[in-house]
Design brief:
Length: 410
Amino acid sequence: MTTLLINIKELIQVRETSIKKVSGAEMNVLPTIKNAFLLLENDTILDFGLMKNLSVSADKTIDCTGKMILPTWCDSHTHIVYAGNREQEFVDRINGLSYEEIANNGGGILNSAKKLQETSEEDLYKQSSVRLEEVMQLGTGAVEIKSGYGLTVDAELKMLRVIKKLRENYNLPIKATFLGAHAFPAEYKNNKEGYINLIINEMLPKIAEENLAEFIDAFCETGYFSVEDTDRILEAGKKYGLTPKVHVNQFTTIGGVQVSVKHDALSVDHLEVMNADDIKTLKGTNTMPVALPSCSYFLSIPYTPARDILNADLPLALATDFNPGSTPSGNMNFVVATACIKMKMTPEEAINAATINGAYAMNLSDEVGSITKGKKANFIITKEILSYGAIPYNFGSVLIDSVFINGKAI
């Protein structure tokens, strides 16, 4: 079946040839076509161009007068599979407790792990599918989901099986990341070596046996997993074919960027605290820096220094960090707006970061992230807006008219 969208006010993120990512000054260039058409064949982009050059018809025609089209958001860092919520911790922080104090009192990741361990796989799937459907309605058309709230062999496998079931039942690209190294369980507080051995010797072999993940992650941070711990875990994951994507530099800079680059990580995520050595380390690598601005917003911590990263001619991606403790939102529209408002990114840079560069951070550059012939027909149709600058400007408004995944409106 062919579908033709006509009279598109502006077709955004148009790439004649497929590219992997954009970096530095290139990120401020967002190719578009005004007064355009877009032709789909089933689930694939077949053609596009100026309306004046349109010479074909289709089985179905959609008039987009006054509306714009851009690729769906590519959210490369989420924790969508979790149980319950941590609303009480939100109130505790308002009353003056820090993230670290809450964690030391048995809250934080360990709180989520306890709830998840007590939740059935079926119930966990139901909770997670609601969140996934919500972010799809908000324009996300490709997503990475991590484990990490299990922290036992059975619970980590349960999370990854839920991610696998989501991938089977929803038709957008979903990537799975094993994050057993998210925190040390209470019973291993004085035996950290024992928990790392559990990850390497018991969790990883079973995950590989069931083919439950593509990526491996670790929370490389003061008070969590050290650089040495992270080095061991990433090395072990690579032996099972898992590509590193690593939490680094959220609160402190301890060498997480360096150990991630050593293992040719696909991405390093958070980066709220960066120094000159971290930026220098990333130059000339294949590793994508990923910023999570809604996490900074929610926790009132510094924002990733986007201008320093871009001025160093590096790329940058944006993602939500959707999770129950530090970012209970999967709204990529808010992420794009916050990047512009708080990180001083231009709308062009932010849209590039949330589409083509987000796709790169999931190894999905050839499938999604731009309007390119042969890519999946995953795109957003906006409401009638003056310019794409309205997306970050009207940060509290829903400017999405409809979302198409695999050529079909959801």
